Amino acid sequence: MLDKKSGDKMSKLLELKEFETVIANPDFKEEYKCMDKKYFKYLTEFIRTFDSNNESDVLNFIKIGYKRNIGETVTFNNYVGLIQIKNNYQIQILPKIDFINNDKEKTKQVFIKMLRSMKDFPSKVFTNANLKIERMNLYEIFINMYLQEVKELVRCGIKSSYEDHEDNLTVYKGKLIVNKHIRINLTHRERFYVSFDEYQVNGPENRLLKSTLLKLKNISGSAENSKEIKSLLTFFELVEPSKNYYKDFSKVIIDRNTRSYETIMKWSKVFLLNKSFTTFSGTNNARALLFPMEKVFESYVARNMKKVFNRKNWEVSSQDRGHYLFETLNGKNHKKFAIRPDLVVIRTDNSIVILDTKWKKVINDKGKNYGISQADMYQMYAYSKKYNTSETWLLYPLNDDMKDSGRITFDSGDGSRVSLFFVDVANIEDSMEELLSILSSDKPVILE
Fold this sequence. Notes:
With 448 residues, this protein is of the alpha+beta class. Helix content is 32%, strand content 24%. It has a 6-stranded mixed sheet, with helices on both faces. Strands 1-7-6-11 form a 4-stranded mixed sheet. The chain is globular, with a radius of gyration of 27 Å. 32% of the residues are buried. Mean pLDDT is 83; it is low at 1-10.
């Protein structure tokens, strides 16, 4: 079926935000997101497939529950992206960003911007300037990212190289393989069984690339993406599709001659093998591209913090290593229980600030400690003592409740402080400038 306005193939799509619950009981559709019973069954089968395969990661963020009078429920926690189950039914999970006021297009734009900050996320040349992002689900946007990478590769020139070949030819070239020549050509003196190098574009990288384009041609529902795929395939007419994905991926070696393929091969593996950027993969009847928002948020803040803080020559390091809760075991040197804060800032005067990002919703209720977990506070206290600094910060995404909360700082009374800062993910640069201003005006603690 085609969308008359866009020319795109129609697919069933359920859009929701993380932490929302899905049900199959239409009597409660005003309170929850509701799916047709058939598709809800497909979704629970998808989840239970991972349970039976002991892929526990999926169960940490997609939880099947039960509510009295309603029936089974499915809740998505802390992971966002897209799941496609049987019959092309798609479930799009967007991050919960309160202050964007349910603007799906703006939410998708911010989310894509956040994803691009991740080191392992391939999107070097992606631009959404001319992309009708409101008409595309996340999977189509990811396909478009891939196509832009391939387009850039084609512009620079696809890789050609010499490949080893063996053949029984009527002309002599290369090197004669004596044992095979004698065995095969005993009665064919006009032939030569030889090995030779042939210069061609039919290498494993290009075979995988063409296979990916062919697969995306079949699954894409976007007229814009389909048109781009057809155009790109003309550059691969001399390339054969891969006959064995795993074998060809094992042959791909990224070096200085193939560096331009590094990003594209990551994407090809995602699409061809139904892989995801999480620790689980899709099945034959379903595929998923899901991302842990805790890691996405951490990466997003780190990247933008480095960009802003480096102007003052402040050193910002991510996932700092080398510190342990305990230095000895039974009186002997034996470091145990590593601690690794998300971000460590060292000012030019050598004073240290420790910051941890938390993709959690804080509530404006002092009596409930703003919803901060006790474990997070223990963690910050340990950082303060091991790094010998009183300045530790918890960074949360800004939400409507905390917009005008003012400065919130907990003081232990023995030299440790934990302050809260709320990051406006839609205006990350302004947020980092604000944080820099606060840390510049705070009185630093000088290490002895």
